[in-house]
Amino acid sequence: MQDIEKITVEQGRMLNQVDQQSHRKVAIIGIPVKEALFKNGENPLGEYIKINSVPFQVVGIFSDRNDR
How far is the C-alpha of 63 from the C-alpha of 44, rounded, in Å? Predict the structure, then answer.
């Protein structure tokens, strides 16, 4: 994804092979999502967000060319 979308990991990490093989419920969110969900400047890493009522743990924050 990093090569296709030209994103930069700002905090945390990208998904890895273990996440995929274990079908872990983890997420990488963009800066606009971080700002919308964590309005008081909280650190979202390790926190859970719901996507379609399914909890996912935030493991990374990314930015793309439009966020800079």
Answer: 15
